[in-house]
Amino acid sequence: MNYRHIYHAGNFADVLKHAVLARLVTYLKQKDKAFRVLDTHAGIGLYDLSSEEAQKTGEWRDGIGRLMADPLPAAVQPLLAPYLDAVAALNSDHGPERGPDRGPDGSLARYPGSPKLTRMLMRPQDRLSAMELHPDDYETLHRLFDGDYQSRITELDGWLALGAHLPPKEKRGLVLVDPPFEEAGEYERLEKGLAKAYRRFPGGTFCLWYPLKQGAPIAAFHESLTALNIPKMLCCELTVKSDRGTTGLTGTGLIIVNPPFTLKGELDVLLPFLKDRLKQDRFASARAIWLRGEDRDVAADDDDA
Ligand code: SAM
User: Can you give the pLDDT of all 305 residues of the chain as single tens digits?
Assistant: First the structure.
């Protein structure tokens, strides 16, 4: 396990993932009934963007840095508010002369990972279960949530949690599966993990993260997901640059099972904006498509060819 999320915290992939995560949690709050969020690959929860690691890659500058650098269009602002208000709240103690969102050098100082963002959006009746397998990252995450009775942090293989921790006793909630994709076969693992988890918790909402990069088997991945016969499955993808001449991350994708009925319309507003704000060259693109259900777009993967 070499992956450390501190090098990537707040990058363009985190922006899409966390913006959608915040939409999903916000939607769950529309009913009073308690929900649980299961975060199977949680990371350390709170990232110091001034740290040597974050500064070394500077990836956040082309993600959350760009997103917060300029005002948002009126149609986008309310959709991003739950996410960006949380980021702003974590950066609010750096002096009014710098503005509410800025660190001492004029840039963001802190960024919330998925468990922290979720926790900031939860109500008193809601619960978080977060798994982290890297021993040091588990320790850090555990310390962050020390004494918080609404959150349970476990040093456990997140793939096992998809069996052992589902269904949650609240019988409503969200499962975020955000693996590091550092080993071969992770797309297949994600698909098998979803199949297992969905059998145990068919009423739950699931959000799965995957990378877009040169040679990634996206069409085959979508096909195998579609074959699971899960009735409602939405996919959204954001590509920020061409994959020619690079083996690194050039885009990011999310699969959302049982999405709120409002999400597709929200993504149709958010994605074009994020593409424009975060693009790194003229090959940037974005799409939200149904893999199963609603107005399933049969030609969904034609543009992968
Ligand atoms: N979800 C986090 C967020 O959005 O802020 C980022 C998570 S990062 C992409 C993936 C994390 O999974 C890393 O912290 C890594 O140590 C952890 N990890 C890797 N394999 C794991 C496993 N089998 N079970 C649980 N955590 C694992």
Answer: 789 999 999 999 999 999 999 999 999 999 999 999 999 999 999 999 999 999 999 999 999 999 999 999 999 999 999 999 999 999 986 544 444 445 445 579 999 999 999 999 999 999 999 999 999 999 999 999 999 999 999 999 999 999 999 999 999 999 999 999 998 899 999 999 999 999 999 999 999 999 999 999 999 999 999 999 999 999 999 999 999 999 899 999 999 999 999 999 999 999 999 999 999 999 999 999 999 997 666 444 444 43
Distance 43 CA to ligand 1 centre (A): 5
Which residues have C-beta atoms less than 6 Å from ligand 1?
A: 1, 3, 5, 17, 41-43, 113-114, 131-134, 137, 157-159, 178, 180
178 a catalytic residue: yes
Given 3-state DSSP classes, what are the helix, strand and coil percentages for the chain, each rounded to the nearest 5? 40, 20, 40
Distance in angstroms (rounded) separating the CA atoms of residues 62 and 47? 16
Residues 178 and 196: their CA atoms lie apart, in Å, by: 16
CA–CA gap between residue 176 and residue 159 (Å, rounded): 11
What's at 133, amino acid-wise?
Answer: L
Q: Which residues pair with 210 in a beta bridge?
A: 253
HSE-CB at 303 with a 13 A cutoff on CA atoms is: 9
